[in-house]
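About this split. The held-out portion is used to measure sequence recovery: a designer receives only the structure tokens and must propose an amino acid at every position. Recovery is the fraction of positions where the proposal matches the reference. Here is one held-out target exactly as it appears in the evaluation file.
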């Protein structure tokens, strides 16, 4: 029997925190809820979680600071950020900080569940079962195994965020050919809700910062104007 996905909720408002815990538990998730970043850190040290639901507007450490710190510490679990702000600029800031999705309050409970399930599916894809593809792609000092979804630099495994791995897999499945933005959006954001076009650009930038000597002048992850993006790589069977 498949284990229940484990979700950690961080919100400094007790009423919302308890509501999220009850609602998500009622949909079959195993949920823990904490009120501040210090308790969050202790939970993450003790146990493994599949997803973090994170409130943006908190004190003394707000959600953006928590998200930024977790990513800097190497945590790769998906993060769904909740906020009362619905401005597009705030969404971009949250995504650029390392959040995987963004949900503005007030929201429908069913929308929350749909977003959580989409992020968990995406994480599963990135962790991924081997595909029928057995290609290995070489670009610069990197080797990407498309089927195993592993990235090596000078023979050493590189851990990258799940969203960037999905984009790399989408590009690597069609090397040296343009992959449309629509294709990348479907893979990177899931099909359950409208995606933010800008988020693809953010993840592409992060990929370039990993694999390019000069991200402003990319050699391997090229922009194909009017079409999408392309991974320029040598192909091995």
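Reference sequence for scoring:
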């Amino acid at each position: 029997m498949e284990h229940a996905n484990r979700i950690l909720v961080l919100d400094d408002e007790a009423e919302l925190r308890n509501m999220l815990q009850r609602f998500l538990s009622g949909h079959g998730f195993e949920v823990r809820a904490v009120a501040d970043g210090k308790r969050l850190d202790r939970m993450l040290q003790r146990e493994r979680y599949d997803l973090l639901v994170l409130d943006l507007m908190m004190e003394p450490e707000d959600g953006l600071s928590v998200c930024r710190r977790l990513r800097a510490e190497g945590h790769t679990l998906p993060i769904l950020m909740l906020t009362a702000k619905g401005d597009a600029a705030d969404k971009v800031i949250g995504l650029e900080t390392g959040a995987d999705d963004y949900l503005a309050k007030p929201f429908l409970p069913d929308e929350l569940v749909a977003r959580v399930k989409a992020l968990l599916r995406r994480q599963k894809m990135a962790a991924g079962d081997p595909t029928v593809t057995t290609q290995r792609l070489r670009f610069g000092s990197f080797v990407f195994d498309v089927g195993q979804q592993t990235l090596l630099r000078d023979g050493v495994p590189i851990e990258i965020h799940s969203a960037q791995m999905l984009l790399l897999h989408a590009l690597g499945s069609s090397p040296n050919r343009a992959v449309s933005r629509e294709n990348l959006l479907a893979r990177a954001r899931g099909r359950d809700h409208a995606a933010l076009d800008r988020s693809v650009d953010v993840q592409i930038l992060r990929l370039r910062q990993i694999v390019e000597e000069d991200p402003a002048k990319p050699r391997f992850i090229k922009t194909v104007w009017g079409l999408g993006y392309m991974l320029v790589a040598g192909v091995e069977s």
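Annotator remark: Residues 136-236 form a domain with the Arc Repressor Mutant, subunit A fold (CATH 1.10.10.10).
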